[in-house]
């Protein structure tokens, strides 16, 4: 299968998709292909100006593309709630939700809701966004082709290499002291894997997946450069031979639309590039941790007034 041509993508006419962080990097690579294959794509992110640039690029390649902006700041739960509500007013169906936006290894800072930014944006903001979109996803799953309604959480192999070995640190979710920026990133990406597993269990009519996209040249490295300036020196080595985001989006696109993934066999799966169902880390496969993280997150959101 060629990862250049994305030739596994079927006709997506009539489908509605949301891609968080869909105007840059892997999100852009995902949005443009979904749109080129006929989906209406909502790019959910923070900057209307960056959306405009992305829209122009998509339209120049595919004049009939239908791409729209949904204002979403994952670092602000009130904004996340507003975004989900606005979407539900605009659309009556949602086939593909790609939770792609992310930050990596940025210096310690808390969101307005008191979460360290990596866990707050990469996991908790996406958890609430997804939860609020479940009714429309379920309604769509009730009428769409089986297995075509999907939630894709873009994780990383860092969930295994970088997260604390014991898994989620429930007693110190922000990992403020005694942990590196890398461990915090891995922890947030482990949460993405566990999130897909719990979604698969609770909503069996929706195909929920997580994945590692591979190493891809994007803006993500601005995070480690800002927290660890020496990273600038090793970055060329880390990215040696890595593709750009158009080619690098292949595993995300495969998870979002490939008919080879089946609801009855693959729900909750973790994918390595391209489309290889693989075992996540020990913590990422722990059914108790899957449940505990769900309970913890529901409680953390509830205590801040989000149901
Ligand atoms: N690139 C890789 O090698 C690699 C490897 C493994 C996993 N991943 C994962 O792939 C995903 C995409 O990353 P990328 O490599 O494409 O990096 P990127 O180019 O830096 O894109 C990240 C996107 O997330 C958005 N974002 C950040 N904070 C946000 C917030 N508070 N609210 C809404 N959107 C926000 C950014 O929007 P702004 O421009 O507005 O900040 C940007 O569009 C991430 O989840 C990352 O962990 C990437």
TrEMBL record:
The keyword Oxidoreductase applies. It holds the Pfam family adh_short. The keyword Oxidoreductase applies. Keywords: Oxidoreductase. InterPro entries: NAD(P)-bd_dom_sf (IPR036291), SDR_fam (IPR002347). It comes from the Eukaryota. GO terms for molecular function: oxidoreductase activity. Belongs to the short-chain dehydrogenases/reductases (SDR) family. This is Retinol dehydrogenase. It comes from Penicillium cataractarum.
């Amino acid at each position: 299968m060629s990862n250049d041509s994305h030739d596994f993508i079927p006709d997506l006419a009539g489908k509605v998709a949301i891609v968080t962080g869909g105007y840059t990097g892997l999100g852009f690579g995902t949005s443009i292909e979904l749109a080129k294959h006929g989906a209406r794509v909502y790019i959910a992110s923070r900057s209307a100006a960056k959306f405009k640039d992305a829209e122009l690029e998509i339209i120049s390649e595919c004049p009939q593309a239908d791409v729209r902006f949904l204002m979403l700041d994952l670092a602000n739960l009130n904004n996340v709630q507003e975004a989900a509500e606005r979407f539900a007013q605009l659309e009556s169906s949602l086939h593909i939700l790609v939770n792609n936006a992310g930050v990596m290894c940025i210096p310690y800072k808390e969101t307005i809701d008191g979460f360290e930014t990596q866990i707050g944006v990469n996991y908790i903001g996406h958890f609430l966004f997804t939860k609020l979109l479940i009714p429309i996803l379920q309604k769509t799953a009730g009428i769409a082709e089986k297995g075509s309604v999907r939630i894709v959480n873009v994780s990383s192999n860092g969930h295994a290499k970088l997260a604390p070995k014991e898994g989620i640190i429930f007693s110190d979710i922000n990992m403020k002291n005694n942990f590196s920026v890398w461990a915090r990133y891995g922890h947030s990406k482990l949460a993405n894997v566990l999130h897909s597993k719990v979604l698969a269990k609770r909503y069996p009519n929706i195909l929920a997946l997580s994945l590692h996209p591979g190493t891809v040249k994007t803006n993500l490295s601005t995070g480690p450069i800002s927290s660890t300036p020496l990273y600038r020196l090793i970055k060329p080595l880390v990215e040696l031979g890595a593709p750009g985001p158009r080619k690098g989006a292949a595993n995300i696109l495969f998870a979002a639309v490939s008919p080879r993934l089946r609801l009855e066999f693959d729900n909750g799966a973790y994918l390595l590039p391209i489309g290889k169902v693989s075992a996540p880390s020990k913590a990422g496969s722990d059914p108790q941790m899957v449940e505990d993280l769900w309970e913890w997150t529901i409680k953390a959101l509830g205590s801040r007034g989000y149901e």
